[in-house]
Amino acid sequence: MADIVLTGDRPTGQLHLGHYVGSLANRIRMQDSYQQFVMIADVQALTDNYDNPQKVRENVFEVALDYLAVGLDPEKTTIFIQSMIPEIAELTVFYLNLVTLARVQRNPTVKTEMHQKGLENRIPVGFLVYPVSQAADITIFRARYVPVGEDQLPMIEQSNELVRSFNRIYGEGIMREAEAIVPKIARLPGTDGSAKMSKSMGNTIYLGESSDVLYKKVMGMYTDPNHVRVSDPGKVEGNPVFAYLDAFDPDTNEVERLKEQYQRGGLGDVVLKKYLFQVLDTFLAPIRERRAMLAQDMAYVKNVVEQGTGKARSVASQTMRNVRAAMHLDYFG
Ligand code: ATP
Ligand code: MG
């Protein structure tokens, strides 16, 4: 049987270019040769949105729309909702015994996010331990590969530690370790120039973005603050306009030419941004169209997710039968 791939996204908003670069592009590629599960992580979204369940619910189907619009094929990829698989929560509880508080507090991604979200002094335990729940997501499907952005590497590491502990204590081979598949461009910066485009930071370009809004967002992008006059030499490193061109312009020779001209001086931000707008608009047009078409038929979208959830649940419950047997919790046979 083909190896299993698992990833997911938090339904905290629509998906954006960062998701595409960091993970969706690999998922679209991998769905042809692997058995792929893609999870809409509503339980994880609640860890820092527990007071806004309405937002999480609405975005579950926004994310599903994005998946289908961008080219995840329900014939090849099983799309499912995390909270509808209670076995994941069950496995999380068993895993929580295998990790120390100090270890979860050391997770660099959690630390960064805690800081970004201003949660330092009032961190919900559920948020702190979401990497443990993520380990349950990955391992309950016996995933071999996890196509994710760079920010997720510490999660895979922590998941594999849990697998090793679990197997040492309850039986070798029950759980399997996973490997991250990180793309060449592992982290797309935000339109504001900060290191990561992220829903919660308001520096995103959505996959379903209209041309108008796209134009405004691109024209308002951060560039090199010292590039004032057209004739001034400008910086390419740390300039998100070039990061986006590297990620989305198929004409790499033209991108190299623009970089040289920008560094030399003589290429204005407005001209450069208009070029980027064209590139992104060309990339997003078919996704946007497909998304609008699918949005007319939400019954279909819902059905795809319902079918996927049923399939995912049967895989997860099979793993939990093995887990319970290994842990001597199979009381009634
Ligand atoms: P939130 O702000 O709610 O955490 P997010 O925008 O960070 O949302 P997630 O749902 O946490 O998105 O991330 C889902 C997947 O997309 C992960 O694999 C993550 O690595 C990837 N990803 C998200 N943003 C980026 C980015 N800017 N560059 C590369 N990959 C990204
Ligand atoms: Mg995130």
Overall description:
The protein is mainly α and 333 residues long. The protein folds into 2 domains: 4-188 and 298-326, Rossmann fold; 208-293, Orthogonal Bundle (Tyrosyl-Transfer RNA Synthetase), CATH 1.10.240. 55% of the residues lie in helices and 7% in strands. The strands form 2 sheets. Strands 1-2-3 form a 3-stranded parallel β-sheet. It is globular, with a radius of gyration of 21 Å. The mean pLDDT is 96. It binds adenosine-5'-triphosphate and magnesium ion.
- Uncertain spans: none
Give the overall form. globular
Structural class assignment: mainly alpha
Task: Round the mean pLDDT to the nearest integer and report it.
Answer: 96
Q: What string, H for helix and E for strand, traces the elements in order? A: EHEHHEHHHHHEHEHHHHH
User: How many H/I helical runs?
Assistant: 14
Radius of gyration equals 21 Å
Beta percentage is 5-15%
CATH architectural arrangement of the largest domain = 3-Layer(aba) Sandwich
Tell me the name of the CATH homologous superfamily of the largest domain.
HUPs
How helix-rich are the residues, as a percent range?
40-55%
- Report the top-level CATH class of the largest domain: Alpha Beta
- What ligand species are in this complex? adenosine-5'-triphosphate, magnesium ion
Strand order of the largest sheet: 1-2-3
CATH topology of the largest domain: Rossmann fold
Query: What kind of sheet is the major sheet?
Result: 3 strands, parallel
The count of strands amounts to 5
